[in-house]
Write a structure and sequence with these properties.
Mean pLDDT: 95
Helix content: under 10%
Number of domains: 1
Strand order of the largest sheet: 4-5-6-7
Largest sheet: 4 strands, antiparallel
Order of helices and strands: EEEEEEE
Amino acid sequence: MIASPRGDPRALDWQNRRIAIARARGPERLSGEWWSDSPFARDYWRCESDELEQEFLLYRDATGWKLQGWYD
């Protein structure tokens, strides 16, 4: 995963390929379980790739970036 200096995603490394992110909307922060011993906070980004002609959802948490899934 490559992010800009502002923190928005620019490219995704997936299946031994680097996929350029043409557009990224976000972040949208989701958090919960603040009352427990393991609260979470995630910043979600809805991304588009012109190369793949596909939209996908990424999030970043304390451990790094993750690919949440693809939109049909």
